Amino acid sequence: MLLNLPNQITVGRLVLAVAFLIVVNFYDAKRPDDCRWMLDVCTVLFIVAGLSDILDGYLARSRNQVTSLGRILDPFVDKVLICGAFAFFAGPHFVDETGRNVTGVQMWMVVLILGRELLVTGLRGFSEARGAQFGAGISGKTKMLVQSVTAVVILMSVARSGVVFGQSFNDVLRPVMVWLTVAATAFSLLSYLWRARSTLLEQSGA
């Protein structure tokens, strides 16, 4: 089967996401000077993957090449990249020699992010199986943007602490972005539940 250009870009983005996860897996916050270059590579991979997400969506719409494969594959790649990144941020690879997680991302935040993705995927399948459109809303797009910016801020500030933004600014910016991500994810979850309420109530007989 031949893939159209938007789907080819999406497949390339999946390759970038896998490469990102492979490289970040070798980072060790206990040896920051030796591993700094890994986060530099991860930053580039993440940004290119994010920009290609915008590009494939634009091309698919402008060329009228939206396909079933693209509708499935595009959000799947988003989930691999975002959920994978934040899972690593909360994990042992980003715990320094003092036992502190240098990203500020906690495991419950990852559970919220993952839980939101699983629930919305289920709601989308449930609604569309009954003929109701359930495309991405503004809250979902905002959530994705905030999560992506937060991931880049974390990567850059941890890799180049005191160089890119300045140490004091980093100490404020990183937790602010992490909590913005939590807020955007929670709001998006509630927004999608509200959108699906009529279908859910109809199914339950309420």
Features:
206 residues; mainly alpha; Four Helix Bundle (Hemerythrin (Met), subunit A)
Number of strands: 0
Strand portion = under 5%
Q: What top-tier CATH class fits best?
A: Mainly Alpha
Reported for the largest beta sheet, the result is: none
- The average pLDDT value, as a whole number, equals 86
Would you list the SSEs in sequence order as H and E? HHHHHHH
CATH architecture: Up-down Bundle
- Rg, rounded, reads 18 Å
Low-confidence runs of at least 5 consecutive residues: none
> Any idea what the shape is?
globular
Integer tally of domains: 1
Can you tell me the CATH topology? Four Helix Bundle (Hemerythrin (Met), subunit A)
Specify the CATH homologous superfamily. Answer: CDP-alcohol phosphotransferase transmembrane (TM) domain
Q: What structural class do the secondary elements suggest?
A: mainly alpha
Count of alpha and pi helical runs: 7
Q: How helical, in percent, are the residues?
A: over 70%
Termini separation comes to: 45 Å
